[in-house]
Each structure stands twice: as structure tokens, then as C-alpha cells.
Amino acid sequence: MRTLLAAAILIGVLAGSAHAVTYDEKLATCLACHGEKGISETSEVPSLAGMPGDFTLIQLFLFRQNTRKIEIMNDLAKDMTDDDLRKFSEYFAKLAPPKATEAADPAIAARAQAVIAKNHCGSCHNPDFSGREQMPRLAAQRVDYLLKALRDYKTAKRPGYDATMDEVIRAVSDADIVDLSHYLARMR
Which domains does the chain have, with CATH numbers? Predict the structure, then answer.
């Protein structure tokens, strides 16, 4: 429902306006899906609060170029300038990241930690999964979004800007993806 509302807002802003869409108008559309404080309550939509600016910048660029395909994001980003991309990236990077409210199941956490150690996930995403540079923050991200993103990488539906994630995720089973998503969503 929220996604439909956001889509309606976006269409109204982009199509019904005779003037150029302002930063504030675009930001309102972003927040409709990604949450008022950048913490999403919308299924399969990531929380962007506290996301490294470089990561968000690259994702917006991929949306603008239609390399990464999500229709609402492609429409929103298509007319953004490089300065717009930086401004949005900086905005979300400055917001306080989400915090996990419940603990991970200990058995699932142990299995996820084994997958993390085997694949050196903490090397790129940081040991606390806070993300850095062009690597996203995964700690306390929505579990449904993590499942979708990891599965999309595994099936090559989601392009990366380099092959690292494609190479790492290829050997990870779906059961491991479920465990990782559960554990990462509950990291404090």
C-alpha cells in the first residue's frame, strides 16, 4: 500500500507539475517509501538511514543509468544531476541508522557467523556490518530486504558495479541466505 502511495506521489510530482521537481519534492517521495527518518517500514524497501554516502551515490547512479532496474527508482533518478545524487547520498548518510530491537536466534546466529567467517563478509562490510565507502550497512537492515537483495545478487538479477559480490554469493546456499538475513537484521 505504501509503495502504491509513493508511486502515486511520484507520478503526480513528475507528471502533474509544469515546473522542475525540487529537491524537497523528490526527498518527500524518497521518504514515503524509505521511511520518514530513512528507516523503512515498507516490505522489501531498504532503510537508507546511516548508509555510507558512497554506496547510496553509486546506487542512485545505477538507477539513473537504468543499469539497476526498479521502475520507481529509475523514474525518480532519471533527471537527477550529479549534484542531486550527492545531496541525497549525503542526506541519508547523516541520519541515525536503524537499531535492532530483538536478538537473533542463537542457533541461526551461529550458522550465520560460520557463513560470514567462511566468506569474509566482515572484510568489506566491516566486522560490525556498519558498511563503509561503497559497501552497504547491513546491520539492522530489514530482513525481507536482505533476503531479496541477497537472492537477487545470487540469481544475477541485481547488477553490481564490480564482480566481488557476484563471486562471493554464488557459493552461498539459500538456507545460508535465510540465516544471514535473520542474523544481520538483528545485529545490534
Answer: 2-94 (1.10.760.10), 106-185 (1.10.760.10)
